[in-house]
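Sample entry (217 residues):
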Amino acid sequence: MEKKMSTSTTKTKDMVTTAMFVAIILAMSFVPYLGYIPLGFMNATIIHIPVIIGAILLGPARGAFLGGIFGLTSMINNTFNPNLTSFVFSPFYSLGNVHGNFKSLMICFVPRILIGVVAYYVYTGIVKLVKKKKNDGKGSAAALAAAGAAGALTNTLLVMNGIYFLFGSSYANAKGIATDALYGVILGVIGTQGVPEAIVAAVLTAAIGKALLHIRR
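Predicted structure, serialized as tokens:
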């Protein structure tokens, strides 16, 4: 009986925690400037941070769910507040003869769903390795930082490469780029935006995740 009550309490806590992370993702997505950190040369997206930390705390399934919420907010924003390249994220937006379609959903959802999954397994994998070496304190911080960076890079790499392979010529035309030069531009975005965002994610995940894991324990 006592075991059943404990399991029920844990499930309730997980549901409440999941709802909290969903609320944070929604706020960061729809409140202007809340989901970004200005670095001077760019605004680093941090909307994926709740997905990463949520996955570490709650497991890969809930992490994938939170990533799906992130993807949904991206689709909504690109549908109702579109820019020239919103067709790659929303099947409901078109630019001239270019229309968003099922491939837009793949770019919008698949990378975001995988953020939490990748982050969780990077974190748990490093924690297991460090435990074997009996270095728990430093290992936890390193695992959190690595999970943050891995989750952020998962998003950037899959989104940008998805755009190249699924919407290459259309995206190049919308951006006014020669098709032959497109992948060079993609690599530039990964380097100038994806890498700084991964560093920010590593720092924030290590700081916030360590505190939340301590509270949860």
